[in-house]
Amino acid sequence: MTSARTVLVTGGAGGIGRAIAAAFTALGDTVVLADVHGVEEAAATLGVRGVTVDITDEDSIARALDEVGPVDVLVNNAGILSVHGKLLDLPAADMLRILQTNVHGTFLVTQQVARRMVDAGVRGVVVNLSSIGGRQPTPGMGGYESSKAAVDALTRWAAIELAEHGIRVNAVAPGPVLTPMLAAGLPEGSPARLAWEGRIPLRRLAAVEQVAAAVVFLAGDTAAHITGTSLPVDGGQLLT
């Protein structure tokens, strides 16, 4: 890299967010973590800046961006993964909360950051966190997966409209990722863990560092001619 970039990572207090932040920090970039809870502890642990933000609130986003200053790379990692239910059972309020965070929140942050990039003439990069679930359904997870299908569509929408400003927009679409929380709930060798691994041709879950590596790649100069794509990091699960 020719110079340090300012990288804003939403959902930065979680396992994937921390791994993404660590990967950019290792490159010498200036990283800012953003989250609604726990960002101070996460930022202190990583030795980076932190800012509290509610991505579903336009005013909260604007205040955070005023504090952060110019952003070169936006990583839209914030989202709700833990709310699930079958189609006939999922409460309507839960579905709305999923969409408000995963889709509308991603839209709001992208819109505000992109506006500032355009106004400042910054040829920036946006990387969204999607999921292969947007293309391969799992019973009981359809609310989350529908939101990630929308994130893929939002990625293409933003990419085609922001291209004239030199701003690239892509997504990384993981399969199951071995975050600390998932590892605690699915111990190695457990029937549930083996069931997930059995769906994956490479027979293992993704490490958070492998997801972070894909984000760093799409944000970097070697991906300068890539925009509007959603890159699976799934061990081949979409092949099945």
Radius of gyration: 17 Å
Strand content: 5-15%
Which regions contain 5 or more consecutive residues with pLDDT less than 50?
Answer: none
Question: What's the number of structural domains?
Answer: 1
**Which fold does the CATH topology refer to?**
Rossmann fold
Could you say which overall geometry the principal axes of the C-alpha atoms support?
A: globular
Corresponding CATH superfamily = NAD(P)-binding Rossmann-like Domain
Question: Strand sequence of the main sheet, in spatial order?
Answer: 3-2-1-4-5-6-7
Report on the structure:
- The structure is a single chain.
- The protein is of the alpha/beta class.
- It has a single domain (6-179, 209-227), classed as Rossmann fold.
- 45% of the residues lie in helices and 15% in strands.
- It has helices at 15-26, 39-46, 58-68, 92-120, 142-162, 180-185, 191-198, 208-219; strands spanning 6-10, 30-35, 49-52, 73-76, 125-129, 168-174, 230-233.
- Strands 3-2-1-4-5-6-7 form a seven-stranded parallel β-sheet, sandwiched between helices.
- Helix 1 (15-26) packs across helix 8 (208-219), helix 3 runs parallel beside helix 4 and helix 4 runs parallel beside helix 5 (142-162).
- The longest helix is centred in the middle third of the chain and has 29 residues, at 92-120.
- Belongs to the short-chain dehydrogenases/reductases (SDR) family.
- InterPro entries: KR_dom (IPR057326), NAD(P)-bd_dom_sf (IPR036291), SDR_fam (IPR002347).
